[in-house]
Design a protein that fits this description.
heterotrimer; A mainly alpha (668); B mainly alpha (305); C mainly alpha (487); C: 487 residues; mainly alpha; two-stranded antiparallel ribbon; globular
């Protein structure tokens, strides 16, 4: 089968699955299992596509439909960049659906007829976004994706917060889409086609001939994609929308949906800018936007006490890292191809890593919500004993997002920060951005230590009987946590594929994988034949294991016995609940220092001035006066009808005389 | 900078041994010094060794179970020892082929992660307060460390710690590196957990903070990790930022470096002895100003001074 | 064959109207539904049969004009432009009649309606259907005018159907304003005849310069009045006193479309529209969109809100026609597509509101909330209608709006981007507000008013399902049709 046929199979499977789950929605678990089966089948087809795209030379475009009047045609092509994102989506989709099987059983008041079908169409739309190569149909898939995710976000019908968040989400992203529509049309005006290749060629041309127009187009596209990706300030929808969605959906949103914004940025910015003179300017702009986003997003996250909201803010922060990497890459790619390519690869790798650990974290928060009904971390604590699998995978994912070596978050952050600092030697601004990124990485750590401390560690609440989540939910989390470890310890292997993706999407020749990354056991950034920065996870993990064993040997050397004791509160008796250190108390002085970093805007319905209102009300100043005038004059006329025959006779006589007089006057 | 594997292994063993075996001595020197300043007799120089030995044999009282909790002290000490292999001691860092300054900075936080998680897990409110403070101190100090190392990186044009050391030894002192060295020295005070920055432990208010529920061998390992860490950071300071005189003969350089590191720690001890404890927000403000001043060093480095 | 089918499509509903007026009770419903169904089937058949060609046959002449005209006065014309209107009119007409069979009943909590007066309702409704088909297949201005005025009368009768003082006033207002517009239409025809001796659409091109402008302006005024464009937009919200199926059909899908259809006809049949007139048409369309938008936020009656949305969307069509007059075929095609897509979308919305009113007895935005709990199908249909009307892909109006803005983008210089920006801003705000209202009414905690048992009766639900599908497939039908326009 060709790639296009395989994709058709995948999308058909998803749509058939949507119908099937709609029919079975009454049986909650069955519908979940059926959906999972269909998603898994589609994911297999997509993985085959991914492997084909990486292994064999690129297959040509397949055109499905032509709209002659507009110069648009529905054509499908999978290059390594699409394949890379398809791999992320396929993985996250299966995991999120599997997780939902049991998770969705506890929404008793809401029918699942508005969950699984929409979820499956949502996945189909994402696949569509990644494979079409025509902007009009890209927009169609893109908005279908927004539309379906809107219904997933507003799944809890009676929850006012869900509805508000959903409205905000849809309106903001719809505005962004309209920006993209304008950008596409501006390019279409130049080239008369919506095909990606033609649009990009037109954009490259415009950058030379009409830079102002070109920058307008780029700006509009940036707004469009960055909004979806959650870059501040356009990403303001994200911290509202992600927490209120069912947790499987939150994972899919953070894991897959926001990545589509990154896909768009790479597809359009990395494909044109690096070869143009505007590369450095736009690179710096994107890097600055990313840094602002990671700084504000993460520091705001630090102050949150709602677990899912906290993670949503961290999504903004991590997307900031990705944008920082992209910016550095775009700025450097022409002058230093190695550095630039590595920066973009770091950004894409971070996108994949973020999909793993953030999805895992949302699933973990969902597991806690499922068992305790609580998202407020102030009222949680000590769940590690009761939910060891959830606690374990959440811990791994937390450390991964915080960039603790050797987990995957560190590997990609290392690439981003290292390239940023090395780029800083040419463009000092990047030094500052790199330092900020490192500082924020530590703030992320602080934030997730708080989560772990407040939710899983400490004394459990004795009044709450909690047990581990069902196997489906636990499996989903463990798979993602395992991926976090695997991608972190063996970063070279995924990065080889990511190199293909980058090479396929930038206009500059990218050095080979071994040249870029050094040997297969670690990563290095080379400059002038010398390794300027290195990270070999296996060597360090080996060292760490040996040294920790040495340390453990020391600990056991004295042969000391162990004994379980109660917590010592200086001799006074306290209930554990009264002396708990709640989540809101963590890092108070630090949080105060960054208060107000995230301004809140209140939207109001536009109120028109009274004058304008009156001017618009044509009835009151035009038609009604005229109507009244007509009525009054009709009244005046009707007064002449007195109903007395003699008066009418008189009128006849007067009339006759008048007629005669006029006729005589005219004749004479 | 390519080191033969065997030599690297030998150097790594040396670094680990130094961090493990000499760090209590450095602590002993600082205690003695503090006593002298306070006009006390003070404990013998070997007292930290004796403390460790005694603690290793005492009963281990735990408030909570679980494998991660049981392993946390070993992870903490282990990661500090790993840090030791990333820091130069008389020669390029032994594991320099596996990690650069970014790795160093991130590994340096790992032991703190183990300590803080242990504190949160122990269930004591004092430990939680201490853990929270420990994290805030880390947040305050780490930018200083990062800026200082990046100054070196800009000067040397590489992120490799060994490369910075080599460049610095070759080119002699510069303004930017001097600023970075001063900043790093000021950060050392907090990394060593000494007054006026022993806010996370603060024995008199929160009774040892993160360590309140640790006893016996667990307490020994956490203490050991802390002492090793202060020695390692002193080594980092004297080796990377003040590497002169760099003789090129490894044994002599090692001895010289250790002496310099001890001198630095003596200075830290003196500051510890004559200062009262600051409040956490004062400490944060102080280190923010230090980090911003260190940026001046970065500016000098960028313009080539 | 095709000729007689077309004539039959006018005669059949007219005949059925007469029958429905005299028979009693349920029989009237059946007669009406059957006739409307037949017409719809015939219309689809005719559109398929004439796909891609312009089918034209002369039928008869006025005795006193015989031989003086280039072509006889009466005849039939079916081309892609007419097909679009024909499909909207007949398909949605049938669905409306079907819907009405259940809507007009004693079970209706908004307006309980016994079987006795329903003959009158179906009489006017079917007569309207007949005259609207006549509009769609008229080959020249004169015949078009005759059917046009018939629709006005039907509209008046149907708006006033309930006979309350308010509905009588609203009907009279609609009648006066559209008939006044009709006078301008008549004036235009007179001038056309006097100057060219013809009633043909193409005769517009033969008019000398300033007369052509004058005729176009008169036609434009007529179209504005019919399509409730500024400054004649005030009758449409008041016309919401009509029974809801009537609002859906006459005042969203069909009759108001006659106004924009007239403009589209005029523009398509001649390539010589004076640019100033086209600019005026476009500017007024933009003004209409924003004035209509400004009324959204103060509406509490769902139907009035939808009426303003209709006004704005007709503004889109007018804009597309104006752009077409300025030379953009894409925009013109988009405008014609919008007639179709908006017809389905807005009919869905109105019939949903009808269903809600039927079950709950309320149309008040502030009184209703959480209706989706008991009426999931209606809620789904309403959301899909909102998406369709607001232009969220893959639903209908996205494609038509996209074609219109694409055409606008081709305007020279900075005007293109500015117009596009204005249009999209309007689109975004109206989308946001409609979505907000949809959420307010259908989601959230259920209010006491909204505590009903179920979705509306099967006939009404089936209509909603068909319309939902229509929102999705309308562009698939419309795009192949409109691509023949402007060839």
């Amino acid at each position: 089968m060709s790639i296009a046929e395989l994709l058709a199979v995948a999308i058909t499977v998803l749509l058939v699955g949507a119908v099937a789950s709609l029919a079975l929605a009454r049986w909650r678990r069955l519908a979940g299992w059926v959906s999972t089966a269909f998603v898994a089948a589609a994911a297999i087809a997509i993985w085959v596509v991914v492997l084909r795209a990486f292994s064999s030379p690129a297959e040509g475009e397949a055109t499905v439909l032509v709209l002659p009047g507009l110069g648009a045609r529905l054509s499908v092509v999978v290059d390594p960049l699409s394949a890379f994102f398809l791999a992320i989506v396929a993985t996250i989709a299966v995991v999120a659906t599997l997780y939902s099987v049991d998770y969705m059983t506890h929404f008793a008041g809401n029918t699942l007829a508005k969950f699984y079908p929409i979820l499956l169409v949502f996945f189909a739309a994402i696949v569509g976004v990644l494979v079409v190569s025509d902007f009009l149909f890209f927009l169609v898939c893109w908005e279908l994706m927004t539309l379906t995710s809107f219904f997933l976000v507003t799944f809890e019908r009676e929850n006012a917060a869900s509805q508000r968040a959903g409205l905000k989400y849809f309106v903001i992203t719809h505005a962004a889409t309209l920006c993209m529509v304008v950008a596409a049309l501006l390019l279409w005006r130049e080239c008369g086609s919506f095909h990606f290749g033609d649009l990009l060629a037109a954009l490259a041309q415009l950058l030379v001939t009409r830079p102002v127009l070109a920058h307008t187009v780029l700006g509009l596209l940036f707004i469009g994609f960055a909004t979806k990706a959650g870059v501040l300030p356009m990403g303001d929808w994200l911290p509202d929308a992600h927490p209120v969605a069912p947790s499987g959906v939150s994972a899919a949103l953070s894991g897959a949906l926001v990545k589509m914004g990154i896909y768009g940025l790479v597809r359009f910015f990395c494909a044109v800018l690096p070869a143009s003179a505007a590369a450095v300017g736009w690179g710096i702009a994107i890097a600055l936007a990313g840094t602002a986003s990671l700084f504000v997003g993460t520091l705001t996250a630090l102050g949150q006490t709602d677990s899912k909201r906290l993670m949503a803010f961290h999504t903004i922060g991590q997307i900031g890292y990705i944008c920082l990497g992209l910016g550095v890459g775009i700025a450097c790619l022409r002058s230093a191809p190695t550095l630039g390519a590595l920066a973009i690869m770091g950004a894409l790798f971070h996108a994949a890593n973020h999909a793993c650990f953030k999805a895992c974290l949302f699933l973990g928060a969902g597991a806690v919500l499922y068992r305790t009904g609580e998202r407020d971390m102030n009222r949680l604590g000590g769940l590690a004993a009761a939910m060891p699998l959830t606690a374990g995978s959440s811990t791994v994912a937390s450390l991964a997002i915080a960039g603790v070596p050797p987990l995957n978050g560190f590997a990609s952050k290392w690439l981003i920060v290292a390239t940023c600092l090395l780029a800083g030697m040419r463009q000092p601004l990047f030094l500052i951005l790199g330092l900020v990124a490192m500082f924020i990485s530590l703030a992320t750590l602080a934030s997730f230590l708080k989560v772990l401390g407040a939710v899983f560690l400490g004394e459990p609440n004795p009044e709450r009987q909690v047990s581990e989540v069902p196997a489906t939910m636990a499996t989903a989390q463990i798979v993602l946590a395992a991926l976090c470890v695997l991608l972190g310890v063996l970063p070279f292997w995924p990065l080889r594929f990511i190199r293909e993706a980058v090479a396929a999407s930038v206009p500059i020749t990218v050095p080979s994988a071994s040249e870029l990354l050094g040997g297969p056991w670690g990563l290095s950034v080379a400059g002038g034949g010398v390794a300027l920065a290195v990270w070999s996870p296996l060597a360090l993990v080996g060292g760490m294991v040996v040294l920790a064993l040495v340390a453990y040997g020391l600990q056991r050397a004295g042969g000391a016995g162990t004994r379980e004791v109660a917590v010592w509160t200086c001799g006074e008796e306290h209930a554990a609940a009264t002396v708990r250190y709640p989540a809101s108390s963590f890092y108070l002085p630090f949080k105060h220092a960054f208060e107000g970093i995230y301004p809140r805007i209140r939207w109001r319905v536009p109120a028109f001035p009274a004058g304008v209102r009156r001017a618009f009300d044509v009835d009151s100043w035009a038609y009604q006066p005229v109507a009244r005038l007509v009525e009054r004059s009709a009244g005046a006329v009707s007064r002449s009808h007195v109903g007395v025959p003699q008066v009418y006779l008189l009128w006849i006589v007067v009339g006759a005389v008048a007629v005669v007089a006029i006729v005589l006057g005219l004749v004479g | 900078m390519t080191t033969a594997p065997l030599l690297a292994l030998a150097l790594a063993l040396l670094n680990v041994a130094v961090a493990l075996l000499l760090s209590p001595l450095a602590e002993g020197v600082m205690r003695k010094l503090k006593a002298i300043v306070h006009s006390r007799q003070g404990p013998p120089l070997t007292q930290p060794y004796l403390d460790l030995l005694k603690l290793l044999g005492k009963e281990d009282l735990r408030t909570t179970g679980g494998l991660p909790y049981a392993l946390a002290p070993a992870l903490s000490l282990g990661s500090v020892l790993l840090l030791a292999t990333l820091v130069p001691l008389g020669a390029a860092p032994p594991l320099g082929f596996a990690g650069d300054l970014i790795v160093l900075i991130y590994v340096a936080t790992t032991s703190a992660v183990a300590l803080i998680l242990t504190a949160f897990a122990s269930g004591s409110p004092y430990a939680a307060v201490g853990g929270s403070r420990e994290m805030m101190m880390l947040l305050s100090v780490e930018p200083v460390l990062a800026v200082a190392l990046v100054v070196g990186a800009v000067k040397a044009g590489t992120l490799s710690v060994g490369g910075i050391l080599a460049w610095n030894a070759e080119h002699g002192p510069t303004i930017s590196m001097a600023i970075a060295a001063v900043a790093l020295f000021l950060a050392l005070q907090a990394q060593a957990g000494k007054l006026p920055f022993d806010i996370p432990e603060a024995d008199q208010e929160i009774m040892g903070g993160p360590l309140i529920e640790q006893s016996g061998p667990r307490l020994a390992l956490f203490r050991w990790a802390l002492w090793a860490k202060q020695l390692i950071f002193a080594l980092l300071l004297v080796q990377v930022f003040v590497p002169w005189p760099h003789l090129g003969i490894v044994p002599l350089d090692v001895v010289l470096t250790l002496v310099k590191a001890l001198l630095v720690l003596v200075l830290v001890g003196v500051i510890d002895a004559v200062n009262p404890r600051l409040r956490i927000e004062q400490a944060m403000g102080y280190y923010m100003r230090v980090a911003l001043s260190a940026l001046a060093g970065l500016a000098f480095a960028v313009i080539g001074m | 064959m095709l000729t007689w089918m077309l004539v039959l499509m006018v005669l059949l509903p007219a005949l059925a109207a007469a029958v429905a007026a005299v028979v009693k009770g349920a029989l009237a419903r059946w007669v009406a539904a059957t006739a409307a169904a037949l017409v719809a089937v015939l219309a689809v058949w005719c559109c398929l049969a004439s796909y891609g060609v312009s089918y034209r046959v002369a039928l008869g002449d006025l005795p006193w004009l015989a031989g003086t005209l280039p072509a006889p006065v009466f005849g039939v014309l079916l081309d892609p432009v007419g097909c679009i209107l024909l499909l909207v009119v007949t398909v949605i007409g049938f669905l409306t009649v079907l819907y009405s069979t259940r809507y007009l009943s004693t079970a209706n909590r908004d307006h309980p309606e016994g079987p006795e007066a329903q003959g009158r309702y179906y009489f006017w409704l079917l007569l309207f259907l007949a005259s609207m088909v006549g509009v769609a297949i008229s080959p020249n201005f004169l015949q078009l005018f005759i059917f046009w005025e018939m629709t006005t009368v039907c509209s008046w009768a149907l708006i006033s159907y309930y006979g309350t003082p308010k509905s009588l006033a609203a009907g009279f207002k609609a009648l006066v304003m559209t008939a006044a517009g009709g006078l301008f239409f008549l004036g235009a025809i007179c001038v056309l005849f006097a100057k060219t001796g013809s009633f043909e659409f193409a005769a517009l091109g033969q008019l000398p310069g300033h007369w052509r402008s004058a005729v176009f302006v008169m036609l434009m005024i007529a179209a504005w009045a019919k399509a409730a464009q500024v400054p004649f937009h005030t009758w449409l919200p008041d016309a919401m006193e009509a029974p809801t199926p009537i609002s859906a059909y006459l005042h969203a899908a069909a009759m108001v479309k006659a106004g924009v259809y007239l403009m589209a006809r005029s523009v398509i049949s001649t390539s010589a529209v004076p640019p100033k007139v086209a600019l005026l048409l476009g500017a007024m369309a933009l003004l209409t969109m924003f004035i209509a938008l400004s009324y959204y936020f103060i509406q509490d009656d769902l139907k009035r809100l939808l009426a303003y949305s209709t006004i704005a969307n007709l503004g889109y069509v007018m804009l597309g026609v104006a752009l077409g007059a300025l030379g953009s075929v894409t925009a013109l095609r988009g405008a014609m597509l919008h007639i179709l897509c908006h017809g389905f979308g807005k009919a869905t919305l109105f019939l949903c509101v009808g269903a809600v009113a039927y079950m709950t007895g309320s149309r008040s935005i502030s009184a209703l909330a959480g209706v989706a709990r008991t009426m999931p199908l209606t809620a789904t249909a309403f959301f899909i209608g909102v998406m369709a009307v607001a232009g969220v892909p893959p639903f209908g109006c996205f494609w038509s709006k996209f074609m219109i803005v694409a055409g606008a983008m081709r305007l020279p210089g900075a005007i293109g981007p500015v117009v596009v920006t204005l249009v999209l801003v309007e689109s975004l705000i109206s989308f946001a507000w409609l979505l907000h209202v949809a959420q307010k009414v259908f989601l959230g905690k259920t209010t006491p008013v909204a505590c009903v048992n179920s979705d509306p009766p099967p006939a009404m639900s089936a209509v909603l399902i068909v319309l939902m599908l229509g929102c999705l497939v309308a562009p698939a039908i419309g795009i192949p049709l409109v691509q023949w326009i402007g060839r």
